[in-house]
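Bug #77: duplicate submission created two jobs. Keeping one. Sequence:
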Amino acid sequence: MNGLLAVCFGEFLGVFILVFFGISTVATAVVFNAFSGVMQVALLWGLGVTLAIYATRHLSCAHLNPAVSVGMVLAGRMQPKLLPWYMGFQLLGAIVAGLVLIVLFDGPIQQFEAASGIVRGTPQSVRTAMIFGEYFPNPGMAQPWLKIGMGTAALAEAIGTFVLVTMIFLLTEGCNVGRPAEGVSPVFIGGTVSLIISVLAPLTQAGLNPARDFGPRLVAYFTGWNSVAIPGPQGGFFVVYIAAPLLAGAAAAVFFRYLIAPLMAIRARQLESCSCQAQCVNGSEMREASNWK
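Kept job's structure:
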């Protein structure tokens, strides 16, 4: 039971750190025009991911993303019965992060809306709703001629999440003799997030994480954005920002487990340097999972 408590708290805390710093970065970009380009926002998101992993990797293995947790189950790195706990507390951490942000930033957001002629809850308020949830195309970067359909947006989120989850496996797999040292793998995971955001943010804001999107989006729904938050001006948030990343995480796990991992194991055995122990960020999940009864 103590192990399960650590997992729940670790996922809650890690997602809170990740989401709070991430959406606060978006808030300062929208309200204060604090950044000059998507790269700066992407780097801060990646730094938030890195800090969240370091803060919680010895509590819960720091999945911090339902798509990652689904992938870990399908890759055999986590017991399926733990999945609801992981996902539930990931969502809770994201909701609390959204609540803290609205407490801190609601005044400045309202002033920005008033100065910009935005009425919260109308379609134009997507400009401020984007602080909490994601939209396609990115309301802060969209050009009048730019149209992105739900299918394209879902594909973008799926590709981004697939790359992220695959890289997490590659960066933490014992048979990958080229992986970074355990102590610095969170830096590379955060860097991966930054790169993906830099590419996909103009299209979909690069959610890549169902908890990161849905938790703050719920907060926005209940604090005045209403239908602009859920289902959103174009609808489809569930398909694009929840279903697509979850399916992509599952696909990445199958791809890694049945294609990449066996090939790496063959090569590593040839080099006689394979630990070949399934591991998560800190390599302890399979050891601990058997004790979480």
